[in-house]
Amino acid sequence: MDKIASLSNEENIPELQKYLSTLTDDQVCNKCTVCACCLGSPPSSTAGANRRLLLYQHCIPLCESGDLQTEVAADIIGLLMLETHTLSGPSLATLGSLFVDAIKVGKMSSGKSLELFPTVLTALAACEALSYGKGELSGEEYKKQLINSLCSSRWDPQCVIHLTTMFRDVPLSSEELQFVVEKVLRMFNKLDLQEIPPLVYQLLLLSAKGCKKQVLDGIVEYFKEQDARQEEESLDLEVQSIPQDQLRHVEGTAILHIVFAIRLDHELAREFLKGFKTSYADLCPFSVALLLSVARIQRYEEQVFELLKGAIIKSFKDEQLQQGSKLLQDLLPGHCSVAQMILDTVQNSVFGWDHVTQGLVQLGFFLMDAFGPKPGPFGKTTEGSLAVARTPTQQACKLGGQVLLQGFKMHEPIRGEILEQVLNRLVTKTASPVSHFLDLFSDIVVSAPMILLESSSKVTETFDHLSYLPLATVQGLLKAVQPLLKVSMSLKDALILVLRKAMFSSQLDGRKSAVTGFLLLLKNFKVLGSLASSQCSQAISSSQIQVDVHSRYNSAANEAFCLEILSSLRRCLSQQADVRLMLYEGFFDVLRRNSQLASSIMQTLLSQLKRYYEPEQDLLPPVKLEPCITAHGDQVYLQEPLAHLLSCTVHCLMWLQNTRQSANPNADDSDGDEEEEEGYRSDLHAILESMTRRMMKCELEDFELDKSAEFSMGSSVGVKNNIYAVLVMGVYEVLMEYNFIKANYSKRCFEEIIELFSRYHKLSEILKEKSGKGRGPSHKTPRSLFSMGIISTLITVLFRDNTQSREEALSVLRSNGEFVRYILSAVVQKIQQLDETGHTDGPDGQNADKTFRFLCDMTSVLMWRYTNIPSVVEEGGKKEKRSSLSQLCLEGLLRIFTTCQQRYPDKMAQLLSTMGWTSSEKAVHFVMNYFYIRQFQRALFTQLSGGEEDFNSKEAQLLISILSVLSRQLKPSSQQFVQMITWTVKICKETSFEDSAFCKGLLSLLFNLHVLYKSPVGLLLELCQDIHSELGDIDQDVEVEKQSNFAIVNMKTASTAALLVLSQVDRVLDEVDWLIARKKSQTASDKLGCEATQTAGRQDPVEKAVTLQLGTLLTALSELVQTALLLGTCTVTLLRELTRTYTILTTLVKYYIQVCVSQHGSLPARFEKLVKLSGSHLTPQCYSFITYAQVLAWFSCPAPSLLCFSSWKAKLLRETKAIPNLIFSIEQYEKYLITLSKKSKVNLMQYMKLSTSRDFRINAATLDAALQEQDDSQEVSASSTQEPKQKKRKQ
Asked: Rounded mean pLDDT of 559-569?
């Protein structure tokens, strides 16, 4: 060893070579140093080359063994790398095989010597020829063989990262790189979870060479599988193979690596985003999190959010389409929910994904801004928010709110930003509805009130803008912060200051906001001694807050506080009617929740009422109407809503009286407070009794409202009389309610009620009569002032009360048919208001639970009334134009069912179980729903059993609408649903009434049911045959075979049926188009290594379904295009649907062109039949129908008059505009058929027959005949016109 060292130091190369040649192989490996061996082993000699090879063969395992120090091993590898280029080709090949064999047996776990392998492969690729087996290979080919062998073998998991790192330095062709990437991605599942992030990092570096999409897809797919496995294990309650927190932390690290790589390589970002643009099916919680992290890069922010927005809305639309079609559910049972992925990402982000949370906040607000409610016409918004998000846009907006709410709960750093942005939008978006942001803010307050108090300064800043915000926003905001006011004195004080300022605002909305705020405070700051919340049905959503920081001085402070507010509110009694109205509507709730304020409230109401009450008992009328109005110039306005004042007073008085009686039934009235209470109670009762007595005596002339009075809304006198009439009618209604409550079923009181009603009815009839005359704005029936409670009670006693002692008194009410009709109309009106706004006027109108109980009671009564008293026994059912009582009952039931589905979707079962049946909790909804359906089916069958003369179309339509609503509650898989369809089909087949409106309702019900049971194309074909049979053929010489599949289709209803059929055709085309688009995206993503579409005679089920659907549709449409439809909506709609049909056929042809190009598959036989069907049965008939439509339009030309001709010309253009579009779509279809014929080597054009109509040639004979007829008509008109020449020139 010493001699080798000395010779090496002296650089005596010849002597060193001579000495080395005398050593054996073992001596060389054991005793020499690497440097000396390299110097003494010239590659030109065989012995030197062999010695160098031996040196490499010895040093590589030595470095891997770990026996050497790291620095020494690195120096050796570095030296060997420098000398590699001197090795001969065979030596390099031997070294390459050595590396591959070592990797195969797992001897490269440390990876130290792998740094040498890229140098060996690079040198090997530079060799010209190498012997391989019995032949020769180029160095490049040999390198390829080595890589192939390496990637085909088994890798030790410990060396995967080292090998990936190594391949970064190896020059690879695209094919080799793909092979390597596939191998590395396959190894992911064999590695420990902690080794995944470094491997991801190395793979991303390797992707700089190419295969970027493959690398990203592989990483995403791995984590997608891990998430799915976690979910399965959690569902099966198994022990998790990988702890969830560990997996999430690894995912978070991997996301950071990918985002870092994307920042450096924008091509990587383009490949990543491109994959999600065509389809959202590849999305998963991990890829969503990755997208949100990428969104932090400014250049990709907008692109990512637009991509996610499109994926979300498309996912919701697809889900809606699938839920509405049995065909799509059977073909594609699973649905990929992007919304659930995003919510999963929010849940996952709790594991330290700070780089994702900011993107989640942005996404939430992006969705709420993009898909929130939009302002209606003239900036108006619909009142109330629906209980269930139904449309895709509503669902997307709701998703945004869920993301922000969950983010607020989980991540402290983003709470301030979320709150600030929500409040900013409430303040700035004054022109748009902000109900969705109010709902979010309310949810935040409810879920985390104490957290929100940390940011109370932001809420206080928002209060400063209250007087400038729309009233709806103020109401929602104050309702939302209500729980906070109980725990934060500073917040309450800030609000009071703002409200006091708003009370003197110059803006009406500002003052109304102040009233809203003060009323809210009065409801929620209880004075000591007030009734418990259970006694007053308190519905405050503050159960989450059990602490009240004011508890020590509640009784004194709250009482002074509330009385101070009341004194502020009294100022409102001199303001506009709208402000007063809000006060009257709020006083009842205040009293009910804070009964100790009764004295102040009742004294206020009493003094206000006395201003408009005539104390002289002999004077009529008992109310002063003059002070109730005010004039400004020529305009007359309502100043005092007297009826609402009276209504508020009555409700407060009666509630207080009932409450005191139930709380202290035997108490003495000696106490001072009770004496005071008794004072205003007796005063009010006296006033109400006097008003009742005198109002019964009043004639319309006493109010100057007799038949001769003017009620035109175009004049100030008419406006004043209308205001008076509405006030008087309201007073009558309030007095009726007051007398009914205190009557205790006294016959005399009920007679007084009927007397009051007769005067109300007389005035109402005059208003209706006057509103039908003149050109001014028509009169709208004033909203009834009856409360929901009294209406519910009234219809119950009118129809269901069988108590013997009440019989005589109730007969007074029941015998007055107009009164019964009036009460039923009020029921319908109240339910309509509830449906539209979510609440009703009067007490308990805002209380959802009580309102629902009233709905249940009314449902039971209306159902009993309709089913037990046949409409045939009612007087004037047919003679009068107005609705019968049975129809009013049906209308009420329809509105109740619709409202319940919309506002109380979870309580539908409870509503349907109000008939008193008893059944198990699980089956009650199902049983009762079908019970109601059977009842209404019987009623409709009874209607149809009589002759057409006795048929009540309106009632039948209402029954159909109710059946349609109730059928939505049936499960499509249930036997009851099948029975419902069978019954509907039977009715359609057997009913032959010539009523278009009834036909439309019945067929709509049939289609809506049928599409959830199976595809409706067979049904459409039968209906088209019936329509063709009834209306005849476009060729008058052809006699159509008489068919009658459905008797409901007759001469009068055929056009209506045709329009419904075409709308259903459009729906089927939507589904077919969706299926083709889905198949196209699958074909595009499965281009690599995918089998042909049709193998071994089997066709893809989706393609088969598309072909069959289109085949039946073409047959149905061929019937319609031969039908002599009337010119107008029917022909225009048919031409439009034909155009769309050919467009979708073209899309299908393009799909098969794509299949032929990418997969070289043969065309299915069914598709060829479809093409043949289109060419033989549809296209020729389309051209015939075009000619028919043009001739029909031409001969509809009116007598020559400039005005008539111009309107006819516009109508002609409108009705024939679709013809060129249809011809173009047919020609596009044929054009792509030619392309497909060439690609598939199948002559599809043999089925197409070119038509002469495509040349747009003028038929000379037809033109001459038409012109001759026109000239004749002009000559006739010229003889009776003074300036015929001018008219002719204009024409």
From this structure: 81
**Whats the size of the chain, residue-wise?**
1291
Residues 6+ apart with CB under 8 A from 1156: 1163, 1236, 1239, 1240
Going by C-alpha positions, the residue among 336, 283, 285 that lies closest to residue 307 is 283
Q: Quick one: how many helices (H) and strands (E) in the chain? A: 55, 4
Name 569's Cβ contacts closer than 8 Å, sequence gap at least 6.
515, 518, 519, 583
CA distance 641 to 783: 13
CA 1029 to CA 229: how far, in whole Å? 60
Least confident residue range of 233-247, 432-446, 644-658, 879-893: 233-247
Give residues with Cβ within 8 angstroms of 73, minimum separation 6. Answer: 62, 63, 112, 113
Characterize the bridge pairing of strands 635-638 and 629-632: antiparallel
d(CA 217, CA 332): 24
CA distance 313 to 338: 9
User: Which tokens sit at 913?
Assistant: 């179980």
Q: Name the pLDDT band for 398 (thresholds 50, 70, 90).
A: very high
**Residue pointed to by tokens 């790189």:** 177
Distance CA 106, CA 223 (A): 27
β-bridge mates for residue 192, sequence order: none
Q: Comparing C-alpha atoms, which of 146, 149, 101 is closest to residue 127?
A: 146
**pLDDT band with cut points at 50, 70 and 90 for residue 1209:** low
Least confident segment among 83-87, 92-96, 130-134? 130-134
Q: How far is CA 336 from the centre of its chain?
A: 16
pLDDT band at 828, cuts 50/70/90? very high
Residue 584: CB atoms within 10 A of its CB come to 22
Q: Is the dihedral angle over the CA atoms 46, 48, 52, 55 positive or is it negative? A: positive
More confident site: 426 or 1273: 426
Q: Are 391 and 335 in contact (CB under 8 A)?
A: no
- Which ranges of 1217-1259 would DSSP assign to H, the alpha helix? 1218-1240
Which structure tokens are listed for 536? 């007053």
* Run of H or E including 629: strand 629-632
